[in-house]
Amino acid sequence: MTPSPGGPRTVTEVDAHPPVATPPPKTAMVGTPVSMTSYDGVINAIARRPGDRATTVAVCNVHSVMAARRDPALRQAISQATIATTDGVPLVWVLRLTCRPRQTRVYGPDLMEHALANGDRHGWRHFMFGTTPETLERLTTRIAERFPRATVAGTLAPPFRPLTAEEEDAFVAAVRASRADIVWVGLGMPRQELFIHRIAERLPGVALIGVGAAFDFLSGTVPQAPGWLQRAGLEWLYRLAQEPRRLWRRYAVNNPQFMLLAAAQVARYRYRRRVGSQAT
């Protein structure tokens, strides 16, 4: 861990944040609520985070919403997040075909870059929690090169297992000592969502954002899919080619099931719209 100097934030500092913004509205995505928002919407919510509980952000894709259907604890964590972004392109398509025609993707790595690039206007201090010490070192070096005005207040690489109560206490103490405004959590899904949900009450005035593999992507440890594959909704195919043994089952099960459920959701929405227009 490499915290920057400075003591814990005071009540006055927490209260100095702008007035709390109303979280963006959510709508069901095959049973799990996701937020109808944008990069700017998330940044504004972070800037106006409340002081009594952490602002929590989950980035959602096909894997996470399908896993939430099977795991009540994960479904609760995502449902109760302040914001659940449309990280996956197929989720964006469903919203465009139903209730939000202009919905855009809010992709975890891009959200992180956006906050790093613009956070100096808010005086934000960033804390990186996740991955390995080596990747965190590469990540902080890349951030210093690409975003020289961004402040990384601390880093911490946890063990690859559930944290003990003592380790969670140490994490909370490290974040408070760093005076971080945003904690980027890269533990992977569902571990990061469950951790953020559990720890939020202990970090009032902080934003906790789960960004999955963003640390690996932004540090250059793992290559990202080309932009055209991402826009086509085929990023999963690129990742499958990289890690077939680990990911084949996830995509073989989740993707077909999501397509069927999403098609049914779009069909129900359009039927109700048609019936409603006929009734009027």
How would you portray this structure in words?
The structure is a single chain. Helices cover 51% and strands 14% of the residues. The protein is an alpha/beta fold. It has one domain: AF0625-like (Rossmann fold). The strands form two sheets. It has a six-stranded parallel beta sheet with strand order 4-3-8-7-5-6, with helices on both faces. A two-stranded antiparallel sheet has the order 1-2. The longest helix is centred in the last third of the chain and has 36 residues, at 244-279. The chain is globular, with a radius of gyration of 19 Å. The termini are far apart. Residues 1-19 have low confidence and may be disordered.
Biggest sheet, spatial arrangement of strands: 4-3-8-7-5-6
How many individual helices? 13
Estimate the mean pLDDT confidence. 89
Give the tally of structural domains.
1
Radius of gyration: 19 Å
Helical content stands at: 40-55%
Low-confidence stretches: 1-19
What is the CATH architecture annotation? 3-Layer(aba) Sandwich
| Structural class determined from secondary elements | alpha/beta
Q: Tell me the span between the first and last alpha carbons.
A: 62 Å
Characterize the overall form: globular
Largest sheet: 6 strands, parallel
Total beta strands:
8
CATH topology term = Rossmann fold
Order of helices and strands: HEEHEHHEHHEHEHEHEHHHH
